[in-house]
Amino acid sequence: MSNRLALATSPYLLQHADNPIDWWEWSDEAFAEAQRRDVPIMLSVGYAACHWCHVMAHESFEDPATAAQVNANFVAIKVDREERPDIDAVYMAATQAMTGQGGWPMTCFLTPIGEPFHCGTYYPPTSRHGMPGFRQLLDAVTRAWTEDGERVRGAAADIASRLASSAAAELPSAVVGEAVLDDAVAMLAGDVDATFGGFGGAPKFPPSMVLEFLLRHHERTGSAPALGLVELTCERMARGGIYDQLGGGFARYSVDAQWVVPHFEKMLYDNALLLRVYAHLARRTGSPLARRVAEETAEFLLRDLRTAEGGFASALDADTNGVEGLTYAWTPGQLAEVLTPEDAAWAAELFEVTAQGTFEHGSSTLQLPVDPDDPERWERLRTVLFAARSARPQPGRDDKVITAWNGMAIQALAEAGAAFGRLDWVAAAGAAADLLLDLHVVEGRVRRSSRDGTVGTAAGVLEDHAYLADALLALHQATGDPQRLAEATRILDLALARFADPDRPGTFFDTADDAEALLHRPREFTDNATPSGASALCNALLTASVLTEPEAGARYREAAEAGLATVGGIAGKHPRFAGHWLTAAEAMVSGPLQVALVGPVGDPEREALLAQARLLAPGGAVVVPGEPDAAGVPLLAGRPLLGSRPAAYVCRGFVCDLPATTPGDLAAQLTS
Fold it and tell me: Which long-range contacts (CB under 8 A, 24 or more apart) does 347-353 make?
């Protein structure tokens, strides 16, 4: 018999719709029920692609005895963290404060008014490895609530007060200028894994935002060490098991420091951010490996994550039929089943598939330590192996279309498509943007997500507005369409009006001023798995500042500068957690550089200039093509053809070079 979650739109919540637990969605009605019964709330937060969320569900939430205990003594609320990042942020702060760490599934016990008094993550069904069993924990919480409820409520109120004070604390303000950027590069160089790339030990996550910053720093300064860090990490990741050598795309992270064994879930946001990095690296260095990885990652997005409505699904699960990696790992015997003996032996050596294995049960993840010596044979075998793998059971797909993550994918496809001449990628990005504007913008306000063409009820948070705007700005540059710029500025103006802290210029909350009131109004300064909403907004504002009319541009620039100053105290000291902020700072120091390119569409001279501009303009620059004085495109205003010839106008800040009419002249201006 289904519970209340059967009516949810979230795939994660629907996974729990047949649990014997009497789950509620997050709602006023759930809290009212807890107050009516005078019982605590058990809040469980996770997401569809989360391996340990599935484990705890199978062990505990599907167990009738556990469910009876929960139903008798608690009101149980299930939350999809991807659908409600605001709720997740508030209670993750509580979990980290109480335990010193966080993660999912997140399990919090709350008073009937939402104040937390005990928090944790995964709990096994019975005690093991120093962790209490889940039913044992339920017993302890119930006894505390019934026997010492006044003290529990008092402690919860105190915790809530402390969390609110911590959330409201101000960071030291400082300008993020060239000296801070140099210090950040030096610190990253000291932290890098000099053998395998990346930062820190196991588990190791792709540092996409930091790589983007380092690449921009190299473009501005010519720093060989900065470029070296990017090249090392990008090559090691691309050749490791974290990268899907058959189907393209990256897994969430590597469980080891060598990028060999991934945690197999594939997230839209990781692949969008990494597509940008590899496309920009390929453009800057001409690396065939970087270009191949960018192309394969884009094709992965379009093949495996694109939805029927034209958006992009959130993730592929880590598990297949409850087994992690079942779809992706290989043994020598499995290679021999689909290849000739000679090809199987060659593929096993190429991919480092051994009898001992690198993963579980003697299986191996596929790696590609060196490029194959026979590219034609490689492509033929890769096609055969991918087809054989496609016939295996496949991981589940979380079909939620999240505004922010789709914005990341749109931006990446638009930029990479423009750089590589892939108009099909730009068209796919445009279709996804149309879906967001038509479905996710309701009565002028941005919603967080949709599924199967039905928009959800959760309000968009700051990152949704920031990345939707940034995506539209990227499409404006890729196509020259003035409507994309107008749409972007409307979203940015909405973000400035609804998310800015009126008492502290440059500070932005993650929820709107009229959003549901939680324990406190969350705001995140640092970049983590994805850029913070504030750093994403800073980047979008900075880009818009040189694409719009002077009055609006000055307002956007001022907001971007104020936002960047709020993290000046941490950007140079903790650059691993400020990568996206630092990319904005690099663009700000550079201008951002602007290239206005005028000429008729299809004119060979214009197309040659445009290709050169997109090849050589550094990250953070803007490149806009169009007719002279095109309506709604301020960057092209007052920039005529030179005689009858197409021309490119290169400006840095308020200083412009003479118009260039040949690719050689334009290259000289862009590389000077």
Answer: 347/381, 347/385, 350/378, 351/245
